[in-house]
Description:
The chain is an alpha/beta fold. It has 13 helices and 16 strands. The radius of gyration is 21 Å and the shape is globular. Residues 1-28 and 413-459 have low confidence and may be disordered.
Amino acid sequence: xxxxxxxxxxxxxxxxxASLVPHYFKRASSLPSVSVQGNAFFAGGNRFYIRxxxxxxxGSSGSVDPIADQxxxxxxxxxxxxxxxxxxxxxxxxxSQSHDACMSALAAAGIYLALDVxxxxxxxxxxxxxxxxNAEYLQSVFSTIDAFQTYSNTLLFxxxxxxxNSVATTSSAPYVKAVTRDMxxxxxARKYRSIPVGYSAADVDTLIYQTADFxxxxxxxxxxxDFFAYNDYSWCDPSSFEGSTWQAxxxxxxxxxxxxxxxxxxxxxxxxxxxxxxxxxGSQMTPSYSGGLVYEYSKExxxxxxDLYGLVEINGNSVTELTDFASLASAFSNTSNPTGTGGYRPxxxxxICPTQDSNWNVTTGSELPIFPSGAATYLKNGAGTAPGxxxxxxxxxxxASVAFASGSSVAPTATSTSTSTSTSGSKKSAADSRxxxxxxxxxxxxxVALSTLLGMALL
Length: 459
């Protein structure tokens, strides 16, 4: 069902009986904004646990923006309601398009958005980061912030996803952290609501802890992440808190000072029963963890074994619920959030920056790339016209080497205290190499609002 047909059906139902209107359509079209307090998220005075799915119909290539299309929202939001989720993660959006209708409908359904700001054309190149960190790139990032900062159900922004997934790519870490810094400074300079900004990491055993500490270290609070997330596929049913890597990670992050959650989870080595849901929202995890996002909503490939991912299969406007859909719905239904604040810590200290070793090839400590001078105008005047998904791209727009500085180095006039030189290499997009159809295998082995007038009539 899509477009005018959906409106006609809904109008008929509303006329016959207001009780037939979905309950989320009767709710307010805004949600309390989410903020960071200590190592947890809070909304409306209550602790907020992310309970959601990763959502990118059409795959993660970035060719389709699922919330710029009303018919897509109409098709999928009812399924979200069946799962009783409160968050969707989207990897790519078109920042030149309007998202008012879908964001309003998601809010009315009680659903927040966790949003990646990168696109395949505008992202940090994990293999040769320096040229990809430039004013053109930041203009796209800032345009995405402009497009979504007005919505109270914009939960958070990801500054990067799995850019650091090997020893060779650890050298891109300072650039990703600089993007976090720049986003936070842009939000502050534009006097926007303080929307949390952080990073979604690859769960690589030899890198995960150093990556987490790096994103949460240093004296510059604006450069430290507001949260840390990672993509975890270590719990493959049947497993357990002790049998997976979850216990080890929970122990390591016991004193982590910022919110922590799983930006992807749901191993497919065996039949998925989502037994990990009970543990994720249980007393062993909630003192440090704030929930997570299941990978993924829709089946995006027919190539084994990646074709095992997906809660639903989409064919045009038809949605078929797969076996995993019922399993996840049952797991969520049988698992409540903890009462009270779940043992969160209201305060804590930043991490110690990791030192260079055989796995962590970062030599700059807490020094980060200096903010590009050409981007200074955006802090004062806004990002301007958004490039969208059809822009020319930015990965080769910057210089081959970038100066680094310590402290609050967002000002383009900052003085360099060290210099990093990047040689040319493969221009592989960090967005292209992020979690996609094949990456989980490696890791593991709205109804749209009819109109404002109609909504008012139904209240």
